[in-house]
Design goal:
The complex is a heterodimer of chains A (464) and B (141).
Chain A: E1 42-44, H1 54-58, E2 64-67, E3 70-73, H2 83-87, E4 93-95, E5 108-113, H3 127-137, E6 141-142, H4 145-162, E7 169-170, H5 175-184, H6 198-214, E8 221-227, H7 231-237, E9 249-252, H8 253-267, H9 279-283, H10 289-292, E10 299-303, H11 305-316, E11 325-329, H12 345-356, H13 392-408, H14 422-431, H15 440-463
Parallel strand pairs in A: 5-6, 5-8, 7-11, 8-9, 10-11
Antiparallel strand pairs in A: 1-4, 2-3
Chain B: E1 6-12, H1 22-33, H2 38-58, E2 62-68, E3 72-79, H3 87-90, H4 100-103, H5 112-118, E4 122-128, E5 132-140
Antiparallel strand pairs in B: 1-2, 2-3, 3-5, 4-5
Helix pairs in contact in B: 1-2, 2-5
Classes of the chains: A alpha/beta (464), B alpha+beta (141).
């Protein structure tokens, strides 16, 4: 089985503590080390991990350390961007998601296909083929995330024109970006678009529709998302901005894909008209789709987590505050670049473009009401996970110690200690999860000193 | 040494726009890790970035000392540039002596010094023509 087996907890449940254990019994994690209720969807297959430094170097939040020869994630720092899954040459990192077996737990199931799913297939000219195949695969109904996305676009347009004081508004559809802002860019929290991600709105609407149609109680209905990325799994388990998610299960596109192919062949001859979305909705599957749907030119759309960080840094320094909207996607290419997809993101983008070509602009519109349920209900609070102390005095002392240690280390950022940079090791030491001798250069000097002293002692003995 | 303060020193290189902002960005990261209030971090980062850019454009670089104590953050920006002829005039919004090649890069709008004053609680400029300029800015915690 290739999938992670922890899922949303409905199929199987196992708790997993991914926090790095202190490397030696001589060090203890400091009490001020920021703790919160954090969840990460990335898991390590210990037997495959060689303890190399690829993932620690790639991680944009420096959340990984190699301890005792194995990579360990500090879940407080992890934003579920999936970079470590992409880079690991030994395939030791995996995302957790549910098994299609989860469908059996419900009396009635609804599939929520992400728009990026449509970009995975060759020569697809009708979205309905995919949707019909999903029903043949066993789902009782489908509800396109792209349908809800069109409503989110409409709501966003209104929100933007009513909240000019909050420009530039930052999109909140990518859960990794929201999490990154929450832990690292506190001054930008007020710019977040307080509207549910399309998938969360789709889940609410799909459940309401299913309950009305079947008369079943809500717990008998399974709302199952077909996802391009593991961050959505985290967003289901520990949502930001809303108190709970209506999604009951998350399946990976890469796992649904081979199951779906034969059903798609069968569907070609009896396609059901199930699609509810237009160009705007399907456009959300790749970078620029969300921003483009706002019908304004005054926006910026960036993708790839390193680029996203650069934009957020500049935004924080007010280098471009004249913009109306900023769309940010952790994955290169947008959602089509998610680690749970199968097609090259840029090809998938071309395929989405072809699919959209003859569709109406949008097929979903607000029915006059304000659509309260689409808005965030919970305030997003800054989580200072990277802090170095409980108060200023302690933080200043600890930061001084970090600087001192940095001067001691060779500044090679070799990764041999298990931390991605010398500075990261210095911070680990101050946090109480590592010690100086883990730097092999410090250790070597120490051994040389010991040897010298032994030799001296030896010559002294001979002379006696 | 006083354990309650930390001094961070940065060299600002001359004429290198690709590196301008490195110092303020580093300070921003450290202040966040020290748990400084996000609003204060923002003020310091903006004021210091403007100062850093000024040093690159007008003064062949220089040094910046950032001193953090539990009470305040002090930034001392020191250069050996040409000096400021008329400080009052330089403080006026929109006044700039930046040459055209700098303006074409999107700088030189004449908002540097006014913004530095706006985002700090106290700003002092000492300048001697032909010797250099020292700008001292303070932000209270």
């Amino acid at each position: 089985m290739t999938r992670g087996d922890e899922g949303t907890g409905l199929v199987s449940h196992r708790t997993c503590d991914t926090n790095p254990v202190p490397s030696s019994p001589l060090v203890t994690r400091k009490a001020w080390f920021y703790m919160g209720k954090f969840f990460t969807s990335v898991r390590l297959k210990e037997d495959l991990c060689m303890g190399c430094i690829n993932c620690i170097k790639r991680c944009p939040t420096q959340a990984i350390r190699v301890r005792n020869g194995k990579a360990a994630i500090t879940k407080e720092f992890c934003i579920d961007c999936g970079e470590c899954i992409r880079i690991c040459p030994h395939h030791a990192k995996e995302a957790t998601y549910d098994s299609p077996e989860i469908m059996k737990l419900f009396e009635y199931t609804v599939a929520l296909p992400a728009p990026s799913l449509y970009g995975q297939f060759n020569h697809l000219d009708d979205v309905n083929i995919v949707l019909t195949a999903l029903k043949k695969m066993g789902f009782d109904d489908v509800y396109e995330v792209s349908g809800a996305a069109e409503l989110v676009s409409e709501l966003s347009r209104d929100y933007l024109s009513e909240h000019k004081e909050k420009w530039p508004i930052i999109s909140t559809a990518c859960p990794s970006v929201v999490r990154l802002i929450q832990v690292r860019f506190p001054s930008l929290i007020e710019h977040l678009l307080p509207i549910c991600a399309p998938v969360d709105l789709a889940a609410k609407m799909a459940r309401e529709k299913a309950m009305k149609k079947t008369g079943l109680p809500k717990e008998k209905i399974g709302i199952i998302f077909i996802s391009p990325c593991p961050a959505k799994m985290t967003a289901v388990k520990s949502p930001i901005g809303i108190d709970h998610s209506e999604i009951d299960g998350v399946l990976a596109i890469k796992e649904v894909y081979p199951i779906l192919l034969p059903y798609m062949k069968q569907s070609i001859d009896d396609v059901e008209e199930l699609s509810i979305s237009g160009r705007i909705g399907i456009g959300w599957g790749s970078t620029g789709g969300e921003a483009g749907s706002l019908l304004s030119d005054n926006y910026l759309a960036a993708d790839g987590i390193e680029n996203v960080i650069k934009i957020l840094e500049d935004l924080e320094d007010q280098k471009f505050d004249e913009l109306e909207f900023i769309e940010l996607n952790a994955c290169a290419g947008g959602c089509v670049g998610g680690v749970l997809t199968v097609e090259n993101p840029y090809l998938a983008k071309v395929k989405l473009k072809r699919l959209r070509k003859y569709l109406p602009v949008a097929c979903n519109h607000l029915a006059g009401d304000s659509c309260e349920e689409a808005f965030w209900t919970d305030e997003v609070k800054y989580e200072p996970v990277f802090k170095l102390g409980n108060d200023m005095k302690e933080s200043i002392a600890n930061m001084s110690r970090v600087e001192e240690l940095c001067n001691l280390f060779p500044k090679l950022d070799c990764g041999s200690c298990g931390a991605p940079t010398c500075k990261a090791l210095a911070e680990d030491i101050v946090r109480g999860v590592a010690k100086e001798q883990e730097c092999i250069h410090i250790l070597r000097d120490y051994i040389h000193k010991l040897t010298d002293e032994l030799i001296k002692l030896d010559t002294k003995n001979e002379n006696l | 040494m006083n354990n309650d303060i930390i001094v961070m020193t940065y060299e600002v290189p001359a004429d290198d726009f690709t590196r301008a902002g490195e110092a303020s960005s580093s300070v921003k990261g450290k202040l966040k890790k020290m748990g400084v209030n996000p609003d204060i971090v923002r003020k310091v980062a903006i004021a210091m970035y403007e100062g850093e850019i000024n040093m690159v454009i007008h003064a062949f670089g220089g040094t910046i000392d950032v001193i953090v104590s539990p009470e305040e953050i002090m930034m001392i920006l020191k250069d050996q540039g040409p000096g400021i002829e008329d400080i009052e005039l330089a403080m006026q919004a929109g006044y700039s002596t930046a040459p055209d090649n700098i303006r074409s890069l999107g700088f030189g709008a004449g908002m540097g010094l006014p913004n530095m004053k706006r985002y700090t609680d106290d700003m002092k400029i000492e300048s001697i023509l032909g010797v250099g300029t020292t700008v001292t800015m303070r932000v209270s915690m």
